[in-house]
Amino acid sequence: MQQTPTSSDFEALTCDKLCSTGVLGFANEISVMKGSSVTLNSGLTEMKDDDQIQWRFRHENTSLAEINKHTDRITVYDDVLDGRFRDRLKLDKQTGSLTITNITTQHAGYYELQINNVRKCFLLTVYARLSVPVIISNSSQCSSSSSSSSSYCSLLCSVVNVSHVTLSWYKGNSLLSSISVSDLSISLSLPLEVEYQHKNSYSCVLNNPFSNQTQHLDISQLCHTCSDSVHCCGST
Protein backbone atom coordinates (compact mmCIF):
# COMPACT_ATOMS: atom_id res chain seq x y z
CA MET A 1 0.00 0.00 0.00
CA GLN A 2 1.41 3.39 -1.04
CA GLN A 3 1.84 5.82 1.85
CA THR A 4 0.96 9.49 1.65
CA PRO A 5 4.06 11.68 2.24
CA THR A 6 4.26 13.27 5.66
CA SER A 7 5.09 16.94 6.27
CA SER A 8 8.72 16.04 6.95
CA ASP A 9 9.00 14.51 3.47
CA PHE A 10 7.95 17.62 1.57
CA GLU A 11 11.22 19.51 1.95
CA ALA A 12 13.06 16.72 0.13
CA LEU A 13 10.63 16.67 -2.80
CA THR A 14 10.77 18.87 -5.86
CA CYS A 15 7.65 20.78 -6.81
CA ASP A 16 6.72 18.53 -9.73
CA LYS A 17 6.85 15.47 -7.46
CA LEU A 18 4.78 17.29 -4.85
CA CYS A 19 2.13 18.09 -7.43
CA SER A 20 2.10 14.59 -8.84
CA THR A 21 1.34 13.12 -5.42
CA GLY A 22 -2.03 14.87 -5.55
CA VAL A 23 -1.83 15.74 -1.85
CA LEU A 24 -4.50 18.29 -1.01
CA GLY A 25 -3.04 21.72 -0.44
CA PHE A 26 0.10 21.18 -2.50
CA ALA A 27 -1.18 20.84 -6.06
CA ASN A 28 -2.50 24.27 -7.06
CA GLU A 29 -3.77 23.95 -10.62
CA ILE A 30 -4.37 27.17 -12.55
CA SER A 31 -5.66 27.51 -16.12
CA VAL A 32 -5.41 30.70 -18.20
CA MET A 33 -5.84 31.84 -21.78
CA LYS A 34 -2.84 32.73 -23.91
CA GLY A 35 -2.19 36.48 -23.78
CA SER A 36 -3.77 36.96 -20.35
CA SER A 37 -2.19 37.45 -16.92
CA VAL A 38 -2.13 35.30 -13.80
CA THR A 39 -1.06 35.89 -10.21
CA LEU A 40 0.52 33.04 -8.28
CA ASN A 41 -0.49 33.88 -4.72
CA SER A 42 1.98 33.33 -1.90
CA GLY A 43 -0.84 33.10 0.64
CA LEU A 44 0.74 35.85 2.74
CA THR A 45 -0.94 39.14 3.59
CA GLU A 46 2.38 40.69 4.60
CA MET A 47 5.92 39.35 4.78
CA LYS A 48 7.74 39.33 8.11
CA ASP A 49 11.09 41.00 8.68
CA ASP A 50 13.05 37.76 8.49
CA ASP A 51 11.14 36.10 5.63
CA GLN A 52 12.90 34.80 2.53
CA ILE A 53 10.99 34.00 -0.65
CA GLN A 54 12.13 32.31 -3.85
CA TRP A 55 10.12 31.61 -7.01
CA ARG A 56 11.32 28.95 -9.44
CA PHE A 57 10.09 27.73 -12.82
CA ARG A 58 10.46 24.03 -12.11
CA HIS A 59 9.86 23.05 -15.74
CA GLU A 60 13.35 24.42 -16.48
CA ASN A 61 14.65 24.42 -12.88
CA THR A 62 15.27 28.16 -13.09
CA SER A 63 15.03 30.93 -10.47
CA LEU A 64 12.58 33.71 -11.38
CA ALA A 65 12.45 36.00 -8.36
CA GLU A 66 13.67 36.35 -4.77
CA ILE A 67 12.90 38.51 -1.75
CA ASN A 68 15.11 38.67 1.34
CA LYS A 69 13.44 40.88 3.94
CA HIS A 70 16.42 40.62 6.30
CA THR A 71 18.72 42.27 3.75
CA ASP A 72 15.90 44.22 2.12
CA ARG A 73 16.85 42.73 -1.26
CA ILE A 74 14.41 42.09 -4.12
CA THR A 75 15.59 40.41 -7.33
CA VAL A 76 13.66 39.51 -10.50
CA TYR A 77 15.43 37.30 -13.07
CA ASP A 78 13.34 38.08 -16.13
CA ASP A 79 16.17 37.59 -18.65
CA VAL A 80 16.52 33.85 -18.00
CA LEU A 81 15.60 31.16 -20.55
CA ASP A 82 16.41 33.38 -23.56
CA GLY A 83 14.17 36.17 -22.29
CA ARG A 84 11.03 34.04 -22.06
CA PHE A 85 9.89 36.03 -19.00
CA ARG A 86 11.32 39.41 -20.01
CA ASP A 87 9.00 42.30 -19.02
CA ARG A 88 6.41 39.77 -17.88
CA LEU A 89 7.19 39.31 -14.16
CA LYS A 90 5.79 41.49 -11.37
CA LEU A 91 6.70 40.70 -7.77
CA ASP A 92 4.54 42.04 -4.95
CA LYS A 93 6.95 43.44 -2.35
CA GLN A 94 4.41 43.14 0.46
CA THR A 95 3.02 39.64 -0.08
CA GLY A 96 5.64 37.99 -2.30
CA SER A 97 3.01 36.97 -4.86
CA LEU A 98 4.22 36.67 -8.46
CA THR A 99 2.28 37.95 -11.47
CA ILE A 100 3.03 36.79 -15.02
CA THR A 101 1.65 38.97 -17.81
CA ASN A 102 1.08 38.35 -21.54
CA ILE A 103 1.34 34.60 -21.06
CA THR A 104 2.34 32.26 -23.89
CA THR A 105 2.31 28.47 -24.06
CA GLN A 106 6.03 28.57 -23.18
CA HIS A 107 5.06 29.63 -19.66
CA ALA A 108 3.04 26.48 -18.96
CA GLY A 109 4.42 24.09 -16.37
CA TYR A 110 5.27 23.77 -12.68
CA TYR A 111 6.14 26.77 -10.51
CA GLU A 112 7.57 26.47 -7.03
CA LEU A 113 7.39 28.99 -4.21
CA GLN A 114 9.64 28.54 -1.19
CA ILE A 115 8.89 30.67 1.86
CA ASN A 116 11.70 30.04 4.35
CA ASN A 117 11.52 26.21 4.63
CA VAL A 118 7.95 25.78 3.34
CA ARG A 119 7.23 24.91 -0.27
CA LYS A 120 4.14 25.57 -2.33
CA CYS A 121 3.71 24.59 -5.96
CA PHE A 122 1.51 25.55 -8.90
CA LEU A 123 0.70 23.81 -12.15
CA LEU A 124 -0.04 26.36 -14.84
CA THR A 125 -1.93 25.29 -17.98
CA VAL A 126 -2.13 27.75 -20.88
CA TYR A 127 -4.93 27.48 -23.44
CA ALA A 128 -4.42 28.93 -26.92
CA ARG A 129 -7.23 30.76 -28.67
CA LEU A 130 -9.27 28.39 -30.78
CA SER A 131 -9.58 28.43 -34.55
CA VAL A 132 -12.72 27.37 -36.38
CA PRO A 133 -12.62 23.68 -37.39
CA VAL A 134 -12.71 22.80 -41.08
CA ILE A 135 -15.10 20.26 -42.62
CA ILE A 136 -14.16 18.58 -45.91
CA SER A 137 -15.39 15.66 -47.97
CA ASN A 138 -13.49 12.51 -47.08
CA SER A 139 -14.31 10.46 -50.18
CA SER A 140 -14.72 10.86 -53.93
CA GLN A 141 -18.11 9.21 -54.07
CA CYS A 142 -21.31 8.71 -52.13
CA SER A 143 -23.02 5.40 -51.46
CA SER A 144 -26.72 4.68 -51.84
CA SER A 145 -28.67 2.12 -49.85
CA SER A 146 -30.32 -0.56 -51.93
CA SER A 147 -33.60 -0.32 -50.04
CA SER A 148 -34.15 3.42 -50.35
CA SER A 149 -33.10 6.53 -52.20
CA SER A 150 -31.07 7.79 -49.24
CA SER A 151 -27.45 8.74 -49.92
CA TYR A 152 -24.49 8.83 -47.56
CA CYS A 153 -21.36 10.93 -47.58
CA SER A 154 -18.09 10.55 -45.68
CA LEU A 155 -16.84 13.76 -44.04
CA LEU A 156 -13.84 14.82 -42.02
CA CYS A 157 -13.64 17.64 -39.45
CA SER A 158 -10.08 18.83 -38.75
CA VAL A 159 -8.05 21.31 -36.70
CA VAL A 160 -4.28 21.88 -36.61
CA ASN A 161 -1.75 22.68 -33.89
CA VAL A 162 -4.06 22.32 -30.91
CA SER A 163 -3.66 21.11 -27.32
CA HIS A 164 -5.98 20.70 -24.34
CA VAL A 165 -9.07 20.57 -26.58
CA THR A 166 -11.97 18.32 -27.52
CA LEU A 167 -13.24 17.96 -31.10
CA SER A 168 -16.84 16.72 -31.44
CA TRP A 169 -19.53 15.97 -34.01
CA TYR A 170 -23.14 16.87 -33.16
CA LYS A 171 -26.44 16.05 -34.82
CA GLY A 172 -28.66 18.83 -33.59
CA ASN A 173 -27.92 18.93 -29.85
CA SER A 174 -26.96 15.25 -29.65
CA LEU A 175 -23.31 14.28 -29.37
CA LEU A 176 -22.31 11.73 -32.01
CA SER A 177 -18.57 11.34 -31.39
CA SER A 178 -15.60 13.17 -29.92
CA ILE A 179 -11.83 13.05 -29.53
CA SER A 180 -9.61 14.87 -27.01
CA VAL A 181 -5.95 15.80 -26.68
CA SER A 182 -4.15 17.07 -23.60
CA ASP A 183 -0.46 17.99 -23.57
CA LEU A 184 0.93 17.84 -27.08
CA SER A 185 0.27 20.35 -29.85
CA ILE A 186 -1.01 18.20 -32.69
CA SER A 187 -3.54 18.03 -35.50
CA LEU A 188 -6.90 16.38 -34.88
CA SER A 189 -9.37 14.87 -37.33
CA LEU A 190 -12.75 13.28 -36.69
CA PRO A 191 -14.67 11.40 -39.43
CA LEU A 192 -18.42 11.21 -39.87
CA GLU A 193 -20.73 9.49 -42.34
CA VAL A 194 -23.94 11.43 -42.84
CA GLU A 195 -27.17 10.74 -44.64
CA TYR A 196 -28.06 13.31 -47.26
CA GLN A 197 -31.23 14.87 -45.83
CA HIS A 198 -31.82 18.60 -45.53
CA LYS A 199 -33.74 18.14 -42.28
CA ASN A 200 -30.63 16.90 -40.46
CA SER A 201 -28.45 19.56 -38.81
CA TYR A 202 -24.81 18.61 -38.20
CA SER A 203 -22.00 20.64 -36.64
CA CYS A 204 -18.39 20.15 -35.63
CA VAL A 205 -17.35 21.81 -32.34
CA LEU A 206 -13.87 22.52 -31.00
CA ASN A 207 -13.78 23.46 -27.32
CA ASN A 208 -11.62 23.92 -24.23
CA PRO A 209 -12.64 25.06 -20.73
CA PHE A 210 -12.63 28.71 -21.83
CA SER A 211 -14.29 28.83 -25.22
CA ASN A 212 -15.55 26.92 -28.25
CA GLN A 213 -15.68 27.26 -32.02
CA THR A 214 -18.40 25.71 -34.17
CA GLN A 215 -18.50 24.86 -37.87
CA HIS A 216 -21.94 23.99 -39.22
CA LEU A 217 -22.18 21.44 -42.00
CA ASP A 218 -23.69 22.53 -45.29
CA ILE A 219 -24.67 19.14 -46.71
CA SER A 220 -25.83 20.59 -50.02
CA GLN A 221 -22.30 21.92 -50.70
CA LEU A 222 -20.25 18.91 -49.66
CA CYS A 223 -22.56 16.02 -50.51
CA HIS A 224 -24.93 15.41 -53.42
CA THR A 225 -27.58 12.78 -54.01
CA CYS A 226 -26.51 9.87 -56.16
CA SER A 227 -28.31 8.74 -59.29
CA ASP A 228 -28.62 5.11 -60.39
CA SER A 229 -25.71 5.45 -62.79
CA VAL A 230 -23.51 8.11 -61.14
CA HIS A 231 -22.26 8.39 -57.59
CA CYS A 232 -20.84 11.72 -56.64
CA CYS A 233 -19.70 13.62 -53.66
CA GLY A 234 -18.66 17.24 -53.76
CA SER A 235 -15.51 18.80 -52.41
CA THR A 236 -14.72 22.12 -50.80
Automatic annotation (TrEMBL):
Pfam families in UniProt: V-set
Annotated Ig-like domain residues: 133-220
Domain of life of the organism encoding this protein: Eukaryota
InterPro entries: Ig-like_dom (IPR007110), Ig_sub (IPR003599), Ig_V-set (IPR013106)
PANTHER family linked to this entry: CD48 ANTIGEN-RELATED, LFA-3
Protein name in UniProt: SLAM family member 9-like
Species of the source: Cyprinus carpio
This protein's encoding gene: LOC122141413
